[in-house]
Each structure stands twice: as C-alpha cells, then as structure tokens.
Amino acid sequence: MEEKINMLHGAPYNLVAFLFLLTACTVPGPSAPTAIGPTVPPNPNAWPSPTPFSPPANTPMIPVLEPGTTVTATVPPAPTSTQLPAPGFVPSRYTLNAMLDYAAHFLTVDESIFYKNATGETLTALVLAVEPNLWADCFTLGSLTVNGLAATGLSLNGDRLEVPLAAPLVPGGTLNLSLRFDLQLPAADVYHVFGYNDRQTNLVDWYPFIVPYSQGGGWLLHPPAEVGEHLTYEAAVFDVALTLTDPTLPVTLAASAPAEVAAGSWHYFLQNARTFVFSASSAYQTASTTAEGVTVTGYYFGEEEAQARVVLDEAAKALRTFGALFGPYPYPSLSIVESPFYDGMEYDGLFFLSRDFYTAYDGTVLKYLIAIAVHETAHQWWFGSVGNDQAQEPWLDEALATYSEKLFYEKNHPAVTAWWAFRVDAYAPTGWVDTDIYYYDDFRSYVNAVYLRGAQFLEALRGRIGDEAFFAFLKDYAAQMSGKRATGDDFFRILRLHTSADISDLITGFFQIPY
Ligand SMILES: [Zn+2]
C-alpha cells in the first residue's frame, strides 16, 4: 500500500514510505518493498487517521444510547413466537424499505427481520450489529418491536444492540423483529466506504442485522481492529426497496442485485447473501457485459471509461475462470464500483475499487486495477458464498482470494509469470497464516501473514497433493460450505477427503493451530 500513494499521485516524494494505508481486504502494494521512514502524505487532508478501520479521529465513536438505555418504557406481554421446531436451517429474511434524501445524505428505513432460531439453544436475547452507530450522530432508532410488541431493555453500546426477549425463543422458534431508524450519513474519508464523498453515497453495513450465534461461543460480534474486517454474517434473504425523496434527481444506483426500477424507486431481491449494499451517484456512467449468464456492470466516472472497460473484461474472465474452478457464481449480477476509497472492498454482488487504481493503470495486465478487481471477484466465492469469521479466521477468505488471483493469471494471462514477484515475493512475507485481525497493528504485517503467506501455503499444498486433488478439494469445499460459515476445521476436514498426502510439515510451517 505504502508506495502506492507516491506512485498513484505521481508526486515526487522520495521520502514517501510507511503510510498506514490500512484498508479493507486487498493487498495493494508496490512492486518492491518500501523503507520505513517519515510519512509525507501527498494530500494532508487525506490522512485523518492511521487507523482507518476505526472511524477517524474527527468522528469519534459515540453510541446513540448509553449501555443499558431503555428505549421504550412499556413492558409488553410475552410475545407469541411461532415456536415450531423444523428441521434444517431457514435463513433470516430482511425486508428493508429505505427512503433516501440524496442531497441531505439522510436515510429513513423501515426494516423487518424474520428470524428462526437455528442455534440449537434457547435464546433469551438477540444481538444485532449496528455499524452506523460507530459514527457520531449517524444512527437514530425510532422504534423496535418483537412480534409487534415494543421491546424493552434494549441496550446499544457501540455497534452492539442487545434485544432482550420477553419470552425465550426455543430452538426452531421464529420471530419477527421490526425496526424504524434514520441515518444521517457521515462524510466518508478515503479509508471508509460507508457514507458520502464528493462523488457518491455508499450504503454498506447500513442496517442492523442479527449476528451469527456459535454454540459455545455465543454471539459473533467482534470489535473493530486496526486492520482487517471484523464482521461475520449469516447468509440471508433480502427484499429491499429504495426510494428517492426527490425522484427527479438523476441518480444512478449500483447494488448487490439487479433492480426493478419504477419512477425513482428501486426494488431488489437477493438470497443466499451475507449483506446487501448500495452505491448511489449522479456522476456514474455504466458499461455492462455478461459472463456465464451473469450481468457484470461497471459504474465509473467519465474520465476513466477506458480503464472501466478493461476492468469489466477482466472481471468477466475471472468470473468464468472461478466458475469453472470453484462452482457457479453465486449471485445474479456483479457490480464493480469505482470509488475514492483507497483500496478494494468486497460485498455480495458488488465490490468497490479504488479510483487510484483506475488513474494509475498503464495498460499492462499485472496492475492493481486488474489484480484487485480479480481478488474482489474471487471474494464472491470466498466471503460471499462460503462465509467465515473474518475477525478470527480472516485467512479463510483472504488467502483464498489472493491465491485466486494467481489462478486467474495462470489461466488468462499465462505469459505473465511475475505475479509472485509483484504480489508476494517483494514483501518477503512472514507470519502465521491463521493470525486474527487483532494481532498486528499495521496492515503490511497483517497482509503478509494472512494473505501472502496464505497464498504461499495454498501453492505449497497444491504442489504437495497435485492439481487433480487440489482443484477437486476447492470445488468440494465451495459446494459443501456454500451458504455456511466455514472454519479452519472445515477446510482441513474437506481437504482430507481428497488427499492422504502427509501435509503435517506444511501445517506446522504455516499455522499456529495444529490442524
Ligand atoms: Zn480480500
């Protein structure tokens, strides 16, 4: 990441060195390691914080409610859950009706969540992640009901909303949660996708959602860290409508799914997805192609049309390559959104890609514009279809997404043999692959261990067990864990279905956990 700033802005900063470009999910970086030295930001205003995964210093985390705050005072009678045990997992269903005042950066949302208790335990409370509450003065809860009755005893602390249940929810029981809330969207800096910038408004992790529950581990809502993503999602069904308060505004919407559009209103349906996101702009131009029956659309700014078309073509190739190697692409569409955000960031059916990658593109294929677009495309399988605990086991999506870049170049640009040097070897990576997001404070060390050592592990594993077993395993792992949350145990359990090779030295060489 570090020298990228120097390179991308074309500035003659010989001293540019260790800039904490801690970003989302990718590993942008120079083709050679950088020296540690003084930071010389090309744009001082672009560096509000060295910890971009937390809100920047000028937007402190201020919960809307103090812990334990009671939102409603009435004590309702016990809700009547539809406590009908049923076999099999029924995904939660999120119905979201949002009204966006684009000019005022203000969103009003009605949300309902159908939830079935598939935890195997009786629940006395639910825990929801409310990421907008990590921004000051952003999230305001109007009401929250459980099965139509006002909830009491709510507590909202940071991004953790705990909803006590008046009646315990037994295994297999279901309930309906309804919320009304407003968002006063924050101005986004280059380290954050959420909010608005001078070109677009991005709605990511913008609604409260019920976090996964792990038997023995409780609710999986981990705190934000200096590096990496902290959220974990269950696969869910989304029925989403977004309406503009001013339907005459010429706003183009990119989203996680194709839209039905009618007079300033967009309606979407998406299933087996972790999250549903939007990006809105009055400046977008679009270009589309299809790959394997999937519509791939680039949303870009006019100055970067040529680069946007390159991204579109290469992402379509990646989609075909990964479809053949991992299994069918999991969604009906893929949106690629150019953003002032400094890196790439994946969501279901949509990813953001830094404008810097577009402007720095020189026409050669081994560039971040392509490598990161391919990386984010791979996340549609490793993050989207196959979920994981991104805080505790980030390697499960990041190592696979990074190694997927290698697979893409191998298949589509076989003459390009410098991927390892460009992306991995230049950093002489060290560290354990199974590092969590809390161990390192700096992005480079984290990426080196999780992404780059992770790619080295997968290459070594492939060499050990052979291509036939390796690719059969990847396809089986993708199929078995589709719609689920995979763990390292799942990875190695399924791997051992496909090989009897001794990989103990690889495990001790790359992992702390003795899988
Ligand atoms: Zn990634």
Describe the structure in your own words.
With 515 residues, the chain is of the alpha+beta class. It is built from ten helices and 26 strands. It has helices at residues 2-9, 305-326, 355-360, 368-378, 395-412, 419-423, 443-465, 467-480, 488-495, 504-510; strands at residues 82-83, 92-101, 106-116, 123-129, 139-146, 149-150, 155-157, 160-169, 173-184, 195-196, 201-203, 209-210, 213-214, 218-219, 236-244, 252-255, 259-262, 265-273, 278-281, 285-291, 294-300, 333-339, 344-347, 350-354, 387-388, 485-486. The strands form six sheets. Strands 1, 2, 3, 5, 6, 9, 15, 17 and 18 form a nine-stranded mixed sheet that branches. A five-stranded mixed sheet has the order 20-21-22-24-23. Residues 25-26, 375, 379, 398, 401 line the site of zinc ion (ZN). Zinc ion is lined by residues 25-26, 375, 379, 398, 401.
